[in-house]
From TrEMBL:
This is 4-hydroxy-3-methylbut-2-enyl diphosphate reductase. Isopentenyl diphosphate binds at residues 41, 73, 123, 217-219, 261. Keywords: 4Fe-4S, Iron, Iron-sulfur, Isoprene biosynthesis, Metal-binding, Oxidoreductase. The gene is ispH. CDD domains: lytB_ispH. GO terms for biological process: dimethylallyl diphosphate biosynthetic process; isopentenyl diphosphate biosynthetic process, methylerythritol 4-phosphate pathway; terpenoid biosynthetic process. The lineage of its organism: Bacteria, Bacillati, Bacillota, Clostridia, Peptostreptococcales.
Amino acid sequence: MNIIVAENSGFCFGVKRAINKTFEASKKNKKKIFTYGPLIHNNQVINKLEKLGINSIEKIEDAKNSILIIRSHGVPLEIYDRAKEYDIELIDTTCPFVRKVQTIAKEYHEKDYQIIIVGNPNHPEVIGINGWCNNEAIIIESIDEANKLSVFDKICVVAQTTITLEKWNSITKKLKEKAREVIEFNTICLATKERQDACAKLAKKADIMIVIGGYHSSNTQKLYNISKKYCKNTIHIETAENLPLNIFNKDDIIGVTAGASTPEWIINDVINKLKEKVGN
Ligand code: SF4
């Protein structure tokens, strides 16, 4: 049996950084620590954090006099002021790539551009970016929505970091007709694309593909769909415990990939279990 792990899989740079900063904080601090929303969509990591006494909150006032971790998605600008009001010490793990989008939104909003965010209006990253331009951005995720926009003098377009390049290209093409001046910042993060490309490449040569990640994680689901396109024997599991061991043959090439919120220890558990039960 040949087990090959995709070249890019598991935690992206931003999530790795957020998790590391959170574990470091728990070692160094005596104060109660909260995260502003779940740090990542991975139950195993969330359970680990809870064991360390780190819980997630939804309302900032619930972290009064404590430490609050801002996750990699970032938050609206007003949260920094509100934290001061409640005497909250912030540990800001906003991914630098997300920070870049936030600062562009702020800068061009101040220069009187209409900010347009191409992305999902309900995603925390997009809600956060909008909060850097006074919540006055227009958020669209389809060409249909772009078509319906009225015409502006000048617009500045940014992307939610995880959208596809196809979506960005098609929507920005339409937006060019919607203003006298259009400034575009393609702020798509390559981590997602690299992980998806590596998954496709591996799925093409694997007999069986194992996609590891939370059952509710949308980027894991996406990897599963990409993999399934090239390798019909694709399975999606959350941990080694979900691994069905009766489907593997000794000569199989087994491809392994993992979503952006899957920690390395879970990937290693799966590989070890495969080696142990099915053989090398
Ligand atoms: S996907 Fe990209 S932008 Fe988002 S947290 Fe990871 S590295 Fe940062």
